[in-house]
Amino acid sequence: MMTTLPGPDGHERCRWCAATPQYGAYHDDEWGYPVADDRRLFEKLCLEGFQSGLNWLTILNKRENFRAAFLGFDIARVAAFGESDVERLLQDAGIVRHRGKIEAAIHNARCAQELIVREGSLAAYVWRHEVPADRGDGMTVRATSPASIAMSKDLKKRGWKFVGPTTVYAFMQAMGLVNDHAAGCAFREKAVQARARFQPPTGRG
Q1: Does 203 map to a domain?
Q2: Catalytic one among 43, 48, 125, 160?
Q3: Measured between alpha carbons, how far is 140 from 142 in angstroms, rounded to an integer?
Q4: Binding positions for Zn(2+) (predicted)?
């Protein structure tokens, strides 16, 4: 059962975001609001991959370092990284220095380029996997969904790495494809309204 806790301002919020002020700001300003920007979507997929086996606070605290190290997660620039960049990143104490994850981010940038050629944009592809009935009831705690399993399977078929169903579901929660703010959270309705105003990109039609 998803529950809430009152925040410093008296508003009820998802219980998980009370753990640290960093979570609170992320919850209030970012988590669950729809995103159509390819760079932000790619960044989030990469960061969720780096989170694998860790907690989100570790990644959130290093996010600006990741952005600097990966040139703002510009897909074309990351796709052009070579072995010297991998070695540079392995020496960067500001990020998670895991060769497999670093190489996966670079590899996935190249996969993203191929996907964009086929689909028109990363956003068009991602939002094709949003399912109205799967936006979250605000009461159920889960780590995957039929939509995240389907997207994970398809991304892996396209060659992507570190995109398991749990990783993809966390991505979907954060990018607004599913509204998993708890039923009593003061920000659940804000996410609902943001989604109602949002026009999912349609790619090449």
Answers
A1: no
A2: 48
A3: 6
A4: 14, 27, 181, 185
In the predicted structure, residue 160 carries a pLDDT above the cut 60: yes
Binding-site residue numbers for Zn(2+) are 14, 27, 181, 185
Is 56 one of the catalytic residues? yes
Establish whether 48 is a catalytic residue. yes
Band (205; pLDDT cuts 50, 70, 90): very low
Distance between first and last Cα of the chain: 40
Instruction: Give the CATH number, domain containing residue 168.
Output: 1.10.340.30
Instruction: Please identify which of the residues 23, 31, 56, 169 carries the catalytic annotation.
Output: 56
Q: What is the pLDDT of residue 143?
A: 86
Does 123 map to a domain? Answer: yes
Q: How many domains does the chain have?
A: 1
Let me know if 83 is a catalytic residue: no
CA separation for the pair 81, 181 (Å, rounded): 37
Would you say the pTM of this structure is higher than 0.85? yes
The stretch 181-195 carries a mean pLDDT of 94
